[in-house]
Amino acid sequence: MPAPTPLRIDFVSDVSCPWCAIGLAALEQALERLDGIVQPQIHLQPFELNPQMSAEGEDATEHLMRKYGIDEAQVDANRAVIRERAAALGFAFNMRRGSRVYNTFDAHRLLH
Questions:
Q1: CATH number reported for the structural domain that contains residue 29 in this entry
Q2: Helix-, strand-, coil-residue percentages of the chain, each rounded to 5
Q3: CA distances for 92 relative to 11, 55, 104, angstroms
Q4: CA 35 centroid distance within chain
Q5: Rounded to an integer, what distance in angstroms lies between the CA atom of residue 71 and that of residue 86?
Q6: CA geometry: angle at 110 spanning 107 and 31, to 5°?
Q7: pLDDT tens digits, residue range 54-98?
Q8: For 98-110, what is each residue's pLDDT tens digit?
Q9: pTM of whole model > 0.85?
Q10: For the chain, how many structural domains are there in total?
């Protein structure tokens, strides 16, 4: 059997993005199915979803409504989809009303 082919993957994400966590988990599951075929080298790259966000952050529901022009029902529906997708990948997201969104620059700096 030939040696696995090296595969560099640059995964660009924000540490606070639930869709990024879901995407990484899905990627890891897909790569498991390619075990022995490819030799993945995942390189995590930083991306700030909200670089203009102040240090104190803001209410997540209000932020999402304003950012995407949606109402509370749509925010709740989106959160339900995120929870379902995460559960299908084997982990839980505990998003709720009253949670906050923050600037993640310092988190990215710490990881670097």
A1: 3.40.30.10
A2: 45, 20, 35
A3: 21, 27, 21
A4: 24
A5: 23
A6: 80
A7: 989 999 999 999 999 999 999 999 999 999 999 999 999 888 888
A8: 899 999 999 999 9
A9: yes
A10: 1
Tokens describing residue 22: 């879901």
Residue length, the chain?
A: 112
Q: For residue 36, which of 8, 4, 1, 9 has the smallest C-alpha distance? A: 4
Q: What is the enclosing helix (H) or strand (E) of 88? A: helix 72-88
- As given in the structure block, the two tokens for residue 35 are 């075990």
How far apart are the C-alpha atoms of 64 and 11, rounded to whole Å?
Answer: 23
Residue-range definition of the domain harbouring residue 46: 5-111
Helix (H) or strand (E) holding 5: strand 5-13
Residue 20: name the closest of 82, 95, 94 by CA: 82
